[in-house]
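Mods, move this if it's the wrong board.
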Amino acid sequence: MRMGRVSILTGRSGSGKSRYLRSIAAELIKKGERVLYIVPEQFTFETERALAETMGCGLWDADVFSFTSLARRVLNEFGERRTLMSEQGRLMVIRKCADELAPKLISFGRVYHRGGFTGECARFFIEAKRAGIEADALMDAANEKGTDTPLGAKLHDLALLYGASEAYMARTSLDAEESLRLLSELLPKSELGSRHVIIDGFDMISKRLYGAIAALIDAAPHVTVALRIDLSPECRDKAVFSADRRILNKILSICDERGITPDFITPDGERPRHASAALRHLEREGFAFPYNKFDGEANGAIELFAATDVKAEVTAAAEKAQRLIDEGYRYRDIAIIASDTDKYLEPMMRALRERHIPFFTDAKRKLASYAASEATLFALRAAGGSYLREDMLALVKTGLCGVNAEQAEIFENYAFARGIRGSAFKSPFGEGAPAAAEEARGIVMGPLEKLSEALKDAPTAAGKVRALYQYTVDISLREQLTAEAERLKAQGRLERADETAQVYNLLITVMEQMHAILGDAKIANRKFTSVYKEGIDAYEVGVIPSAADQLLLGSLGRSKARSIRALIILGAANGHFPAVYGDDGMIDDEERASLAQMGLGEMPSTAQLNDKEFGDAYGAVTKPTDKLWLSYTMGSGSDTATPCELMDRIADMFGDVSIKTDIEEESASTAPSAYSALIKHLRTGVENGHIDARAGELYAALHKDSEYARKLASLPSALFPSVSAEPLGEDAAHRLYGARLSGGITSIEKFNGCPFKHFASVGLKLTPRKEYRERKADEGLFCHEAMSLLTKELIAMGKGDGSITNDQLETLLDSILPKLIAQHNNGVLMDTARSRAAAARLIRRVKATAYAVVEQLRRGEFSISGTETEFGIGKRYPELILELPGGGRYILSGRIDRIDSYTSDSGEKFVRVIDYKSKSGSAFDCADIADGKRLQLPLYIAAIEAAGAAERAAGMYYLPVHEGIINSSGKEDDFGARILKEFRLRGACLNDAKLIELGGGEDVQPTARSGWRLSEEQLKGTVNFAVDKAKQTAYKIAKGHAEAYPLIDKRGYDECSMCDYNSVCGFDATLPCCKYRRASIIKKDDFLEEVSHAQLDR
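Not the wrong board. Structure tokens:
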């Protein structure tokens, strides 16, 4: 065996190791040698560029690889054609195996289907493989522990999944670990193995990686390895070098096995990275114990910032970047990295765009988040399943299946309204369906049904992949994405265009992986869809910078990618910078130690993972040459955070550095920062009642900027928000409600509940989407329809006086209700077992009420004379004209549920009006009348009287429609008494003993407690009060009132609780500008006295 030479280059961060390695490579190439340069995967592009700059020419005799790409190159060289298994492919295989092995899982049987399970398994399997642990060894350990123990059960399940997935992958593909094993075997035979090797960093550590390093040492004339480590005896921060120290020890062991004594070299001759003495001191002392304070001043090289919230933190960071640019920094000299990209990335991008700072983000988006991925996934679910409505609607809304946004909306609304689902999508919608909905159905279902048939005809995974690919062809997915990418390019959104261009290729990659992995294996549609979803969930879309000069925005691990003059670190809170791993993996540290004691390989512990994070944090803060900024969000309440230990240490180490906050006076060096400062001053001024001079200065400066002058105009409404807009005016009211103002009593009551609700529903005619379900309002409508049909039949039969027998009534109801159930709300009450149960309850409610109505009529002399009787233009009773103050009219119309009448022997005619209420607790309440919320009954009387008919009002009542006693077995008198008690009329009647008796007597009429017994003046006064209230309301409608001013009643029920418009009105009871209108507090006697006096004064 040829003995190669090994050099180990050691040095602290910023000591010039990478620069020194590039100089070594350049010297070797000048001598005619060829170089193999190995770096972590994510740094290959930047390393190639930096090496080319060092050479001053192209890379003719140097190749830059990661260990993974090197293995791929060597395997291809020797004809290895198996697919290299990606991380995403591994997840798909594990998903397939988990679905198949689910019945055998002991510990994970209930969680295997959850999101993230396959990822946790994959991490464990990779760790096990890197430690040299096979599935059989895991199963032996499970049996030794006992599968009835928690650890034994977990090991049993992991061994099953590990073994099955490894066996499956071995048939068709290679994973990274297996490719490293083959690399170790083939390197001595490869031309690449004979080159000078330079290794600058590692992105993974494993038993087989060390085997590849050993193979390189055996084959190459010279291997140089760079490690970030300080080997000096006086080193006081050894903890940050723990991860690299473990690598060093392993390489020394490899060399010792071969009798090689490595050379230790340091880049002592290199110029230090840091231009700032403060940053050089921070690199040495920032992580040391004990540490030495800096003898001098940082002079702005290091800044610390604590923000009250994320927005303040990113705003301050963007301002810092802007100041650096103003000082002459290029965009590419600056990097902003975040400890948590999910939390900081979007707000940071907005802040940079506001300042027109070009940036590139290396953070990647999940492939699954793109519309094209959703379109293919939902198509698979729909066509491979049973066309579930949620899948169909989601597919239509992707915009990629040939349906535009307007068609998609109409299609969705119709599907919800009619309850379309399942195979119903395959048939034409039929009469009454909007043309756009049917057109959309046809466009979507053509390719979908073709996909469905192809999936049925393809029992194997390969066949299903071909079917899915053909679906993308049928909907022209590639062409659509290409056109979208071109459109984005034309708009100058180059990175988004690049992302869009990648999406199609990655989807094809997922399909190719599935074809390679699953091949001719038989698989059900559901499992195939599950594996496909795992694939698109695993892949990510990233882009390369579209311009050379851009600020870098990304994550902690990417800060090494290029030289940086200024670094801004967001989220430097305790526990987040560096990140702290919890001991909560598939198996914890104690269980891992137990496995090691049983002779299995040693997997990394939580402490080792945290060592790496600690080292990465050290590498990040020591990366910039000139400026370092650290910030965090303080938060509040349960989200309160504290600065990381490093920030506290810096504040103590440097005399002129302290943690500043946004609570202090904010810099106003740019228009955005001046605007933020102005808002802060104004808010403080509004709270304190005094606005200071600084606010005036900022306002005057910003007013000169045309962009901000427009923003300033909106500040008053922002500082003094109100959801109660000024009245719209008469012109706008007439455009909204018509030149001839008119409406129903319900509209009047709705306005008095909340003017905005009236404006939205009656004026703008906004209607909530109709859904195929039975709501409370729908139940009420059913009850009204049923009672209306019943009373019409009674009138037609001449039984309006209640002279129908109970058997006849039962027969009549049985002829009415089934038809109504089938027709009501598009047949929703016949759709499911639950809805049929609801229908049965509704039938019981209607029947109980019907028996009560008949029994009430039997007890008195009144007969039903009208049902659903309308008053309005051209109706039985004319419209009720409300003369408005100051001129103008409001035409009031309505529909009376029921009118009963009685004609005395002398020819005098009395009427009573009855309104059905689905709420059993509906009562006649003076506060409701005073507030204009219950005006129906008195306005019905007013409409009848205004017609000039010779009819006197005997009463006005609510009749609850609820489920009562309908079993008529037993004595007829007992049944009648019981049902009358439950359905006693609620409302007001004339306090006339004879009329009360004619109306059914004390068992039918409201008692003094359940209703009102009024004198003629009191009844007329109540009716006139309601008319006046309606006039006042109509006057406000005519003036265009539309404020969000909801009523809250004495029981605490407010109009917002069941409002369809509370998402658009802006009303929030927690805001000072939002107030409820409190219900009137008035006693019945006081109310009646007031209306009586008013009546006498007329």
